[in-house]
Amino acid sequence: MGEQVRLRAADGHELGAYRSAPTQRPRGGVVVLQEIFGVNSHIRDVADGFAAEGYLALAPALYDRSSVKNVEMGYTKEDIVRGRALREEFPSDDSVKDVEAAMSALRAEGLRVGTVGYCWGGSISFLSAVRLPLDAAVIYYGGQILPYVNEKERCPLLMHFGRRDASIPSSDVEVIQSAHPDAVVHQYDADHGFNCDQRAQYDEASARLARERTLAFFAANL
Fold this sequence. Notes:
By secondary structure, the protein is α/β, with parallel strands linked by helices. Helix content is about 35%, strand content about 20%. It has an eight-stranded mixed sheet, with helices on both faces. Helix 3 (about 90-105) crosses helix 4. The longest helix is centred in the last third of the chain and has 18 residues, at about 205-220.
């Protein structure tokens, strides 16, 4: 369904992106933000899923700013270690520039634009929501939100967290909710990564409910 395209950020950096388009006029644009495992088959499936719902989806290759391009990984312990190392090669502010490039490409097609991010991408989705003129932002279990938690969002926020996620305790979720009282925050009886059907933590019921809520949120805001 999708194709590989190129984007250019405001600082001149060029990056790849996976573009998945609906068969009819898009109802909005969605920037799909990767986990630490790159724009792999799962993230492409997620983008294709939003395209099937009528959205034009772009998944920017955020790791193109690292020492390795076209990164695609699985979910082994070794992949986790490698992904965390690649993530540390450039600042989060640079990732926001790449999100802005994707947002601008979608806006050029006359669309309202939202972001949806998972794991590390969830944190980038939040950071983009406080830095960029988005129309909506969805965050799935973003674990690096607290350093930016007091920045004010510029668009409606929807957040999904797992109650059994040891990396994001409920106390962190409470801090986020308190700092952003207008955000819609849901917690599920699930672990970190519950949306990814390629991970051991996948929880079908929680993933389905979170997706239904995400689609309703985008329908209302995009």
